């Protein structure tokens, strides 16, 4: 592949179109079909080639670099015991004041 060519690849459960030599043009998609269609269009617009790198879909989007899940609205780690309804999660006996 040469600079400007478009590759469609699976990356951590998402399908990504990346432009060789231009990482700022990368785009992510939920489905392989969406990514392939967009990759073909982008390559046609750029006048370059498009290549699909085959990979099995896992159905799971993951972020291998993220250690703890973060609540992006609050900017803090998510408590797995939190029921998500605004109430305080119940803790083990003796933890209440």
Q: What fraction, in percent, of the residue positions are helical?
A: 10-25%
Instruction: State the total count of DSSP E strands.
Output: 6
Helix count from the secondary structure assignment: 1
In round numbers, the mean pLDDT is 75
Distance, first to last CA: 64 Å
- Main sheet overview: 4 strands, mixed
Strand percentage: 25-35%
**Physical arrangement of strands within the biggest beta sheet:** 3-2-1-4
The SSE order reads: EEEHEEE
Rg over C-alpha atoms, rounded to the nearest angstrom: 20 Å
Q: Structural class of the helix and strand makeup?
A: alpha+beta
The coarse silhouette is globular
Return residue spans where pLDDT drops below 50 for at least 5 consecutive residues: 65-77
Structure description:
Strand 1 and strand 2 form a beta hairpin. With 97 residues, this protein is of the alpha+beta class. The relative contact order is 0.18. The chain is built from 1 helix and 6 strands. It has a 4-stranded mixed β-sheet, covered by helices on one side. Strands 5-6 form a two-stranded antiparallel ribbon. The termini are far apart. The protein has one helix at 32-46; strands at 6-11, 14-19, 22-29, 50-52, 70-71, 76-77. Residues 65-77 have low confidence and may be disordered.
């Amino acid at each position: 592949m040469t600079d400007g060519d478009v590759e469609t690849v699976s990356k951590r459960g998402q399908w990504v179109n990346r432009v060789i030599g231009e990482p700022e043009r990368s785009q992510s998609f939920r489905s392989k079909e969406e990514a392939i269609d967009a990759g073909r269009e982008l390559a046609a617009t750029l006048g370059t080639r498009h290549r699909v790198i085959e990979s099995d879909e896992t159905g799971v989007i993951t972020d291998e670099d993220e250690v703890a899940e973060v609540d992006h609205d609050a900017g803090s780690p998510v408590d797995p015991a939190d029921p998500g309804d605004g109430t305080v999660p119940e803790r083990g006996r003796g933890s209440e004041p």
